[in-house]
Amino acid sequence: MHLSSYPVLGLLLPIACVATLYERAEELPASTSYDFVIVGAGAGGTVLANRLSENPGTTVLLLEAGPSNLGVTDAIIPMLPQGLAVTTYDWNYTTTPQPGFAGRSIGYPRGRLLGGSTSTNTMAYTRASNEEWDRYARLTGDEGWSWKNMQKYMLMNEKFVASADGHNTTGQYNASYHSTTGMVSISLPGYPHPFDSRIIETTKELSEDWPFNLDMNSGYMLGIGWPQQSIDTSARSSGATAYLAAEYMSRPNLHVLVNAHVTRILQTGTDSGKPAFRSVEYTTADVPTGGTSTAARTVVNATKEVILAAGAIGTAQILLLSGIGPEKELSALGIKTILNNPSVGANLTDHPLLSNLFYVNSNETYDSITMNGTLEAEDIAIWNATQQGPLVNSPLAHLGWARVPNNPYGPDTTAGPTTPHYEILFSNGFLSTTTPLPSSGHFMTIVTALTSPAARGSVTLNTSNPFDQPNINPNMLGTDYDMFLMESAVTAVMKIAAADAWKDYIIKPFEDLAAATTPDALKSYIQTKAATIFHPVGTAAMSPKGASWGVTHPDGLVKHTAGLRIIDASILPVIPSAHPQAAIYFLGERGAALVKEAHGC
């Protein structure tokens, strides 16, 4: 699906936030210190900024490298996130060549605006399985990360709201697992898809493999169900719209600075023999990727903590630029090593994705919009006028989760017997980042994504220039096990497509999928067409206190340092078998509670 950008007309946006939203360093009040300086305004950083500034006596500065989210059409209308890639709202990363992708490098979008990737993603909201959170508790030695103990933070984050069309959602989710008083608005699809009834019929016909799951956020994920998405009835709900809403941005003790590219954190001394990092260096100069800047850099100090929340790529890069990482690699780039830690930047993990495309017998797919600019403009006008129509949905229609019954490749990578190996996502149209959009036709996409891959990659520095991209190697499909899982997932999709429920709807597979009729052809199809669902985690992983490996303690404090904490996707030791947006919000909620407890604020 490739939708273009149109202005949002008549949409009333909160403007009160300008009271403490700054665009240049010199606009900030004269003070150069805050209690807390937070780097990155994504799912983790926005939560921290909100919760830590609840106490009017606590001062907080939130730094975001990108611009504001206000008025950004494609970050507001749920159907339009693809229009944000390769723009000023995207870091525009590219991976290293991936052997599992037949040597291809791929674009690696990450959100670069208030809200981070919560302002650019496809809004899937999945908590992960109860086994997943219990595994985090075991791996870190901290029961606070268990499913049971994380429940309160899940409910603090979630505010379940009505769908755009106001339909009766009975039988589409279990309200007893949810909150209506949290921060991020969550809803079910607000516009029907032409195959909704066929999905439900599939869960009956193929009930052994694909049972209906009333609520995949109950802790049990297996099966197919209705997607819960971060949509406030008709518009995206993000870390920016929820945690940085006008009522919070008006707090005099919370300052938010956009266009602030953090270049490194600085050692400010030692505490109990450990290097302390309570200063942040940044610039608001407009420096292109790979460029250099002679503009003065600003230093801001934290009296209590610097908290990195720049994501699995950004946080790792900042640590390395600051002299925290593998000494051999840093020395080769002329960076003085302050803390030698080989775990920094290691363990990068992501979910490989493959768009399996089918021709369908329907004229009600989103292809009518994506292939016709006039119709697209009409639907945007409908959304502007009524907050209704097909654009109130995200590109995702239904989600399914499954396990591979027989694994010939050794230890299971999932958290337990009810945690999925892979996911399928149904989309009402042509949805692909690796195959060009045809000029005509109607399509359905069944995406397959590995949710528990075995492969691990890394983030390393290319140069010591903070404006250069780092080397991003997610090592997609980098093991035989991962390829086996993806092959199994595609085979499962073909079984779904052959079910009676789809007999008069699916016409045939699209070209590349249609040709994948032998094991070698299937492997080639996967290697040449797979991409990623853009869920990087793990580059500053938590480990138990006292462990010789890992980057942070279970509370996010960086090992062998003082005054430095990380609360974002980078601290997850294992990638969740779920879309990680919700998990990062939960990290932020518990992380904020831990910070408050540590400092009595």
UniProtKB/TrEMBL annotation:
Gene3D superfamilies linked to this entry: FAD/NAD(P)-binding domain, Glucose Oxidase, domain 3
InterPro entries the UniProt entry points to: FAD/NAD-bd_sf (IPR036188), GMC_OxRdtase (IPR012132), GMC_OxRdtase_N (IPR000172), GMC_OxRtase_C (IPR007867)
Coiled-coil residue windows: none
Active site, per annotation: 535, 579
Residue span(s) of domain Glucose-methanol-choline oxidoreductase C-terminal: 453-588
Family the entry assigns: Belongs to the GMC oxidoreductase family.
Cofactor annotation: FAD
Region forming the signal peptide: 1-19
Pfam family, one: GMC_oxred_C
Location of the Glucose-methanol-choline oxidoreductase N-terminal domain: 34-352
UniProt keywords, alphabetically: FAD, Flavoprotein, Glycoprotein, Oxidoreductase, Signal
Biological source species: Mycena sanguinolenta
UniProt name for this protein: Choline dehydrogenase, mitochondrial
Entry's Gene Ontology molecular function annotations: flavin adenine dinucleotide binding; oxidoreductase activity, acting on CH-OH group of donors
Chain positions recorded as FAD binding sites: 262, 580-581
